[in-house]
């Protein structure tokens, strides 16, 4: 049965014992030797495949190439065998923190992997690159890797359920640093005290502002979770050497809660599995069928259907206005409530358009489809009829959709809303959608065959058919993998693919 850990800010003279600190309780979850349930292992396999799919699709993009080149410029550290880099030959390895960096950027670049939304939002699949990198470097088997990943998902998602970061303009990866550190600790069998110190250091070094997701969004958006993963690897290394971290990191009077979140009078209740309770959080997360912000997934499905069934809605001459009535988060983060003029700019970056639901809804409505490259192409964004229709789309917060967005009931939780389209002839079209088609409660829930199909679709341009089959077969055997097989759990690009990708030079 899940327990709730209460935490508040403590003055220094209260001398909060380590056993009362959230970081200690998170470490206790990490050290609990509970067995993984079969359905959890199956979902971990799905997400390993999903991560590889979106990484394959991004191999030649500039941010991924830059991160990969940084990793390639660093040798394998002396105490292990090194870690693989997505796209590179199996024998081409780097130090684990740099593999976490390069692979984390590749996974995150297209905004196309799994998600969990509650008090905060997250992409818990971001835990996999740092945990896998360490697994390959030190040499652990597939079951140990799976246990580490289960912990990473559990802790990040438990923090996301309870503690809002974006309300205080703190980037969501502040929940990722601690979870990745804890996951690595589980995988390595570290003790509670060591993992606690790693969690504290990872949190301390990964709190940053949300400007990375505001206005003209830069390429750092993809690098932010990779940086958190890299910091988690380094935090574990430091803790293993017996070094300590700021404490109490959450509850201290000069700590994260008091000065970065809800202030000195704040308190939270963080749900954590009790001792012996299986780590099942991953089952509450969901992946993306479309390469866009998760709050856009359901809207893409609705727009595709509306445009296909009513082609006249694609012509801006027929439209007076389109209003998407939706949750607070969707309205203020990716909607017109953000007051970001860049969200209506045809020359905006891909990262900015990915966070513009007016743009996304317009293109999905007109095209009856959504593509991870074509839908963001500059020529697509600049099309005259698209720009005209796009500028007629706004969002509005609806209290009921906000309530459903934050609902703890999985059967009620929703990420969509209601669209009202006012036509120039006076007619009105009203439709609504609660969850994306690929959501577990959607019209076409994702299952193993969908994850594999997504991988094949995205990997075929850059991987040989035999390499695609090799990776799928390996991933599907995860709990049985030997140490050597875990070291092959990566994707190798076709000859020439990386040679034709950007190879930017820097300091290293």
TrEMBL record:
The broad enzyme category this protein falls into is lyase
SUPFAM superfamilies in the record: 2-methylcitrate dehydratase PrpD
Q: Which domain of life is it from?
A: Bacteria
For the MmgE/PrpD C-terminal domain, which residue ranges apply?
290-477
Q: Does the keyword Lyase apply?
A: yes
Under Enzyme Commission nomenclature, its number is 4.2.1.79
Q: Which residues form the MmgE/PrpD N-terminal domain?
A: 21-267
Q: Which GO terms describe its molecular function?
A: 2-methylcitrate dehydratase activity
Protein family (similarity comment)? Belongs to the PrpD family.
- Name assigned to this protein: 2-methylcitrate dehydratase
